[in-house]
TrEMBL record, chains A, B:
Matches recorded under InterPro entries: FmdA_AmdA (IPR004304)
MF annotations from Gene Ontology: hydrolase activity, acting on carbon-nitrogen (but not peptide) bonds, in linear amides
Organism: Ilumatobacter fluminis
Name the record gives this protein: Acetamidase/formamidase
Sequence intervals crossing the membrane: none
Gene3D superfamilies assigned: Acetamidase/Formamidase-like domains
Length: 338, 338
């Protein structure tokens, strides 16, 4: 369902018209298309992706960079509600993805250049689902433009520039949606910085089997997906993950048993709260505050008890450090709070 | 072997006389004693612990807070070498530990008080080794002094003040040494801030089965242990872990196959580098830089290749945020670099 008519590019906006209305409890399959398809168009672009590139003018791709599919209105959702997103399964659209060591990466100054590395899924199952590993195929220094700073760049394949990766290694696959959420409050904004509405959170745990809860700020919630990833480490150090298009089957509903003021993730083993800030200290403190509140509200602990348990059993992690607004998460075991 | 003659309190100092000389490759069992034993002296102090309290005058417990056992000289170790510490096994000295929500904790201002929570190991194996879980027993607001700001405080047991924990819950046990390392360069310094010499790193992965490598700065290395913990979360949010005395069996040797400029941890699955700083952004950047260098030096990747792999497969985490100098770590799978 990702076409020029069901996608928009580079922003979050509560005024964006919905492309679909669903009843709470509806299961849908939604295509999430990577904005890095142009890094290896021979491997990462198909007819549908090309149509999106051709169909959304460059002037409408701002001020951020991500291609979003949506928004989808959930009937009856209203401000103050909690949207529940159950990520049921994910399939790769094509078995290739791109990593860009970008100008917004942690060490761009030290490297003094940008570089693309193309990854390939290894031992693809015949049903098109995810294998366990991906491998780096080749890399090239990005020279199509001075900087990788506008969305939708297409770099024509240049076999001479593409340098094979030096060693046969693999990385674990961690398919997930880097960007997902609800319409934010306020005016149109860039898709790059994440926030309490979700958006570009870039937590690799937003994968198959996970459930994410968002506070609703607008009638209908305005749910969207984007920035699909094959794999990312906590931190997303060089600026991107393995960026690659995904088909995602998910269920949208309204949660009457969960209340949250920031994206709240549930996996098979843990709850994760999220914090955001201009620096990691601010983000970490917000994630820690959120997890204390979760332990009190959901776990039934006093604040004193929650604070002690959090110090001895909750892990604070770095979500990403490359989206302007940086992120931290705090994980608490289901065993502890149910 | 922890006695007033083999322990010192609150500082790191390359001039501290060694209490033992060992050949490289020697296995020893060393007692690490918690400086929080006074939080529940009826449960956490035995004859040996009391002797240390009585034998080391308060005037010699500064400027930090930790009781250290050591230093141990490793014969032949010289500046530029790498000390290898294999943590072979750990046993609890007593089945109780203390958590202090302290004035240096993340949310002290919000709580406006300090509070002790005593934990107990659950289902102790008959051989005295570690069970899998601990449970909070009771807590009390700390009122012995205005602030928990001098080392070696003893709070006499007060049954009326001890409030039973509200719910029967358990936390996973993660026995480890919060503090361990080599004699640092320069003058005597507080034991509280960690650094490239190790010290109070507070990474809960420094447990049984782990191997830690340190750069050597002084003849003989000057190895010490302290700050034993039953369990801690990444972050050590409230200011302490479950602080509890441990008996640790470890092997000290000189590594000729590893070179490092900061504590370098190897577990069954990962290598972890460590970064330190005045804030998390600085610590994170140092941990990330260290992991890139490890991937180049040990993994044989080019810097370009390492940067891409680190973004998609290395996890950056928050080690602790409560020791003045804060810490981050970066984990890379053994599979990736061998």
């Amino acid at each position: 369902m990702a076409t020029p008519d069901t996608c928009y590019w580079g922003y979050l906006d509560r005024e964006q018209p919905a492309v679909l209305d669903v009843e709470p409890g509806t299961t849908i399959t939604i295509e999430a298309v990577t904005h890095h398809s142009g890094d290896a168009p021979d491997l990462l672009m198909d007819e549908g992706v090309t149509k999106i590139w051709d169909g959304i003018p460059e002037s409408e791709r701002s001020p951020g960079v991500h291609i979003m599919t949506g928004p989808i209105n959930v009937r009856g959702a209203k401000p103050g509600d909690t949207l529940r997103v159950e990520l049921l399964s994910m399939k790769p659209r094509m078995p290739y993805g791109s990593n860009c060591a970008a100008n917004w990466g942690l060490f761009h100054q030290e490297f003094g250049k940008e570089r693309i590395t193309i990854y390939e899924l290894v031992d693809m199952p015949s049903d098109g689902s995810f294998p366990t590993s991906a491998r780096p195929m080749f890399g090239y220094d990005f020279k199509t433009l001075e900087l990788y700073d506008i969305p939708g760049i297409v770099t024509p394949p240049d076999p001479a520039a593409r340098e094979p990766f030096g060693r046969q290694v693999t990385v674990p696959v961690r398919p997930h949606l880097g960007l997902m959420g609800v319409a934010p409050e306020g005016e149109r904004r860039s898709s790059i910085p994440p926030g309490v509405f979700g958006g570009n959170v870039d937590n690799w745990r937003f994968g198959p089997g996970a459930t994410v809860h968002y506070p609703v700020f607008a009638e209908g919630a305005g749910f969207y997906v984007g920035d699909p990833h094959f794999a990312q480490g906590d931190g997303e150090m060089c600026g991107t993950a393995i960026e690659a298009s995904l088909d995602v089957t998910l269920r949208l509903s309204l949660a009457d048993d969960v209340s949250t003021t920031s994206p709240l993730l549930k996996t098979d083993t843990h709850w994760y709260t999220h914090g955001f800030g201009d620096d990691l200290d601010e983000a970490m403190k917000m994630a820690a505050d959120q997890v204390l509140r979760l332990m009190v509200d959901r776990g039934g602990f006093t604040m004193d008890e929650a604070y002690s348990l959090a110090s001895v059993a909750v892990d604070l992690g770095v979500t990403q450090v490359v989206d302007g607004t940086v992120g931290c998460h705090a994980g608490v075991a289901l065993d502890l709070i149910g």
